[in-house]
Structure formats: C-alpha cells, structure tokens
Amino acid sequence: MSITRRNARRSVRILGVASASAALALGVAGSASACNIRDFTAVAGCTGEQGQITVTDTDASGTNATVTVYEKTDAGETKVGQKDVQGSGGAGTPVVFDVDWKASTTYRIHVDVKTQRFDVNDDIKPDLTTPATACKKEESSSPSAPASPSSKPSPSAPEESATPTPSESESSTAPAGTSSNAPSPAAGDSNLAETGANSNTGMIAGVAGALVVVGGGAVFFGMRRRGAKNGG
Known about the structure:
Distance between the termini: 226 Å
Structural class: alpha+beta
CATH architecture of the domain at 37-129: Sandwich
Low-confidence stretches: 22-32, 168-180, 187-197
CATH topology of the domain at 37-129: Immunoglobulin-like
Helix content: 25-40%
C-alpha cells in the first residue's frame, strides 16, 4: 500500500502535536517540582515562655536547602542560627529555631539552594516580625499551702472531776457549829492529857461526892428522928 502525500502530511502533523503536548507536559511537571523561594514560609510562635521561629519547606522535589535566620536591630543584624531542611510536598517539612523572644522584633530568613538543577539564594518576603505581646510563662500548679496552726483543732480542756475535793466534802457533810454524836476516835496521849488539865472535871466530881454524903446523912438523921418519935 503506497503512502500518499496527504497521508504523510497528516502523519507529520500528528507527530508534531504529540511532541508539543509531551514538551508542555514535561514543562509543567518540571515547574511543579522546581525548588524556589515560594516553597518556604516562616511563622513566629511561643512554646511556654520560649520564642520560636518555624520555617516550612514545601518543595516537592526534596532538594536540600539551607535556612539561616538573622535578627535585625538598629545596630545591624545578628545571626540567630542556621539549619538544613529537605522539602516535601503537601504539608511540607518544618525546621524550628529557638530565639530569645522580644516583642515586635524583626527577623530576616534567608534560603540557599545550590544544585545542578536549582539555584536559590533569596530571602523569604516579607521579613518576619514577632507580635507585640511577649511569650507568657506557663502557669504551674502551686503546691497547696500547709494548714495554718489556727486551723488545727485545739486540744480539749480536761474535764473537771465531778468528785468533790476533801475540803468540799467535809464542808457539805458537817455544817459548822454542829457537833457529831459519834464518839471521837482517840487522837493520842497528848490530846487526852491536855483535855484533863484544861477542864473542871475533878472539881465537879468532888462537889458531887460531898453533896451525896450530905444528902445521905440528912436522910439517915431524918429517919432516926422519925423512928424515935414513933417509938416514944
């Protein structure tokens, strides 16, 4: 089967369209996986009272990049730190820099990529400025304060004994000025001797004896006189 000129031109046209489509697809794929400064983002945050700058590399080509952070002041720039990061598609790969947090401080983040395919030497725009509020300290739970001495229960006072003291019992059972009918126990020789010397017992006994004798004699003489009268 012979190939006509019309068929040949048609074949060439088809090949040209296919080649152009392939070149366009390769170009789009190459630009999608290209490493450039737009693949890098930076944010400032806090972990407790520690300030941090997080740089994220979303480069889908996985090219290794060097990230350097500088603190900008009126006197110039101070290098904070430098780290390498290998990008990944999707959420990207983060790299964290700890910084001495200062409110409203400006940082310059520089990205450097040197490979045969990519050459990046640029800063993330715009410069990163920390918020006006400094990082707050984490509130730790303080230990509970010990109970004050006043809160402790006071020792209860000893209960007063219901048993009366000897002096109270004596005063309640034996009223003043009332003598007891019970005989007093012997208190010793010294008390007896003192009692006999100070009383009038001997005198009273003598007088009573004399009265008995006189009374007996009077009765005797009275009876004799009555008998004599009766006999006479």
